[in-house]
Design a protein that fits this description.
By secondary structure, this protein is α+β, with helices and mostly antiparallel strands. Helices cover about 50% and strands about 10% of the residues. Helix 4 packs antiparallel against helix 8, helix 9 crosses helix 12 and helix 10 crosses helix 11. The longest helix is centred in the C-terminal third of the chain and has 19 residues.
Amino acid sequence: MYRIRKSYVYLLCRALGTVYKSSETFHDYVDDTEFVEIQSVYEWLANLAVTSCDPDLGLRAYRNMHPAMLGALGYAVMSCATLGGALERLVNYYPLISSGSLLKLELHDHIVKIVSIEVTKKVPRVFIDAGFSILLALIRWLVPHYYVVPLGVELVYAPPGERGELEEVFGRNLKFSAGHNVLVFPREICNYPLITASPKLDRLHADFLKVQLESSPTGFASSKIRRAVAQSLALGVTPTLDSIADALKVSKRTLQYSLRNEGLSFSMVYNDVRQALAHDYLRHSVYSIKYISATLGFSDQSSFYKASLRWFGMTPQNYRDLS
């Protein structure tokens, strides 16, 4: 069960030119009514795009974005010294907004990528467009003296019949049917200073966000566990339920209970993280198959081959050759 902050959904709907009425729109709520099941949001937005006869509906959010849409996280992002720091904070604390996707910040020699890995299925185009429109508008809001233009945008959905409005917002370098949703920028944007930077507020905001993340509802447990699993694998340590519980400073029973509330298990989360990392390594790195297999915690390459067949329907090398 993946969840999203209800206030964000309300402001998103206003940005799209509609009115959010929880009593008429959503029917499934978690115990803490600050949050709502994300699948209900997806279904409502998909229906809205159909009834409005506007496949580009999500792009409206670009012109109606304000950092307040992100709640406390939006204000905390504003106090960072540089755009790179703001993006890092946004990625690290995005689970305060939603547990339905993982954000990653990839720094390369000359480019920086913001990768959105959807952990749920059938995410409607309107939600994807709105999310990236808000992100691009936020970047431009934070550094108004620099007109930041994406070098490229990758989108998981199939090519639409008309691309005019997409190109108007994101530029012409668009790739469709991609593995993940990705925004690509020049690396130099990370050094751009924010006009709203405040060292004193920055420290206060950092401490506040840590407390918020630690006390967030159990519906966000999977996001924390995914990050901990990925960090463990990056250190060359095979994560276990016990080791991740220790890393998150909770009991094993609490961890299992939190995941069960989301309809998940530790093995399911572990598998999802390894699949996402396998995709990234195979499609976007030059690491050998042997190295990737070991990094992902497989005891031998044959086990990795079997997992690749299960995940992608083909061997690791064949999946790499698709790129």
